[in-house]
Specification:
It is a single chain. The chain is an all-alpha fold. The protein has a single domain (21-293), classed as Glycerol uptake facilitator protein. The chain has 15 helices and no strands. The two termini are 40 Å apart.
Length: 294
């Protein structure tokens, strides 16, 4: 019995070394993001481009996997399995993602960086992420990726983008809040693990729930919307979209830059900031760093 208890104690001690405590997660996050905000401009842009491309790759993979699935529940589940690869690539390889960088709020509240640095970093990363995601959309279109399944993927890409461009703004805003609660929670879960397997699991299940719930992510949408614009350039995709999904000419025309930005990207971005920076970042900071609640 003594030997068994000794062995169990060793197992638990070993397990404790595999992850950081909640307090350590907050401490590490504050310092890590303060460091990210101090990178030189070129480095920040490069990291932003990487993250935008990685999220777009996950988004494209999810479109391919579900474009011919009629049951919405099954389609969302399959997409949820595929999409998390984007954040996994960022966590393990590198990159700065706008939604994740909303955790910079914690560093600012802790007075590690100024609020002007937070605003500057988020603005640069947002633009860099969008450029990176749009680049992948262009590559997919011009490489013939959307020809898959006799052009049905291109037609579905248009349909998906039309849905995004016609999001009710306040719903996009609220969905954006929910989205970044899960995304920032996934990043914190990944940062709690010290091994690759733990980081992957921390990302996968949380992002899986975000995707199957249909929450709105501004950088993922920065792939879906440009992808729809590119696909719309192909008349064969457009005709197939009309025939397969019974889209009208008016609906096709509603896929415009103004609708994409005002109905989706702008309200979703604001919602993402609140969900990740204020709700997740705020609650974590107050519960672990604020002297008022210690």
């Amino acid at each position: 019995m003594v030997i068994l208890l000794t062995n169990l104690r060793k197992v638990f001690e070993k397990m404790e070394k595999m992850f950081f405590t909640q307090g350590e997660i907050v401490e590490n996050t504050i310092h890590d993001y303060a460091k990210k905000a101090s990178y030189k401009l070129v480095r920040v842009i490069l990291f932003g481009l990487m993250a935008g491309m990685f999220i777009a790759i996950g988004a494209q993979g999810s479109l391919v996997s579900i474009h011919n699935i009629s049951d919405p529940g099954i389609a969302k589940t399959v997409a949820g399995v595929v999409f998390p690869i984007g954040l996994m690539l960022i966590v393990l390889i590198g990159g700065q993602l706008f939604t994740g960088n909303c955790l910079l709020f914690m560093s600012a509240w802790d007075k590690q960086i100024s609020w002007s640095k937070v605003a500057k970093n988020l603005a640069i990363i947002w633009v860099s992420n969008v450029i990176g995601a749009t680049f992948i959309a262009a590559m997919c279109y011009f490489s013939g990726q959307y020809d898959f399944n006799h052009g049905l993927l291109g037609a579905y890409t248009i349909k998906n983008a039309i849905g995004k461009a016609n999001t009710v703004p306040y719903q996009g805003f609220l969905s954006g809040i929910l989205c970044n609660i899960t995304v920032c929670a996934a990043i914190l879960m990944a940062s709690s693990a010290k091994d690759v397997a733990g980081k992957i699991l921390g990302v996968f299940f949380t992002i899986f729930v975000f995707v199957i719930s249909g929450f709105e992510h501004c950088i993922a949408n920065a792939y879906y919307l440009p992808a729809g614009f590119f696909a719309k350039m192909n008349s064969e995709y457009v005709e197939l979209a009309k025939q397969t999904y019974h889209l009208t000419e008016q609906q096709i025309d509603s896929l415009s830059i103004s609708n994409a930005f005002l109905h989706n990207l702008l309200p979703v971005t604001i919602g993402n900031i609140i969900g990740g920076g204020i709700i997740v970042g705020g609650l974590m900071y107050l519960s672990h760093r604020s002297r008022r609640f210690q």
